[in-house]
């Protein structure tokens, strides 16, 4: 296999798979690929352009809005937290509500928060 064929195969991998590959190579050869990985990830993003989208998001509550009670209810629904814990999370906004959420689920959560009058950000 030529190197350019190998690179083409790597481009087909998800970010998580590339990360796992890098860890495996580091362990196998006793090296650190911190700088090359950053450059490779940047290069892969440049090559893929806008066609490659992020597949997981962190849902961050930015602003509660006027209806705090409705927002607390949404936080409880999404996280399964108790009333006190959900209220504390809402009170310390901006705060991360959930991490590494698949795209569709994150967008559904965003809609629930918007319906409750809150502002969220998907990072």
Question: What does this molecule look like?
Answer:
The chain is α+β, with helices and mostly antiparallel strands. The chain has 2 domains: 3-51, no CATH class; 56-122, Ribosomal protein L7/L12, C-terminal domain/Adaptor protein ClpS (Ribosomal Protein L30, Chain: A). 59% of the residues lie in helices and 16% in strands. It is built from 6 helices and 3 strands; from the N terminus they run H-H-H-E-H-H-E-H-E. It has helices at residues 3-11, 15-29, 34-48, 68-79, 83-91, 103-115, and strands at residues 56-63, 95-102, 119-122. Strands 2-1-3 form a 3-stranded antiparallel beta sheet, covered by helices on one side. Helix 4 (68-79) crosses helix 5. The longest helix is centred in the first third of the chain and has 15 residues, at 15-29. The relative contact order is 0.15. Mean pLDDT is 80; it is low at 35-41.
């Amino acid at each position: 296999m030529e190197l350019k064929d190998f690179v083409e195969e790597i481009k087909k991998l998800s970010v998580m798979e590339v990360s796992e590959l890098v860890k495996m190579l580091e362990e196998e050869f006793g090296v650190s690929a911190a700088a090359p990985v950053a450059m490779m990830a940047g290069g892969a993003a440049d090559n893929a352009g806008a066609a490659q989208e992020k597949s997981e998001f962190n849902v961050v509550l930015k602003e509660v809005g006027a209806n705090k009670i409705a927002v607390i209810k949404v936080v409880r629904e999404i996280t399964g937290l108790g009333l006190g814990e959900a209220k504390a999370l809402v009170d310390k906004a901006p705060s991360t509500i959930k991490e590494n959420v698949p795209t569709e689920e994150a967008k559904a959560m965003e809609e629930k928060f918007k319906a409750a009058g809150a502002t969220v950000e998907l990072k």
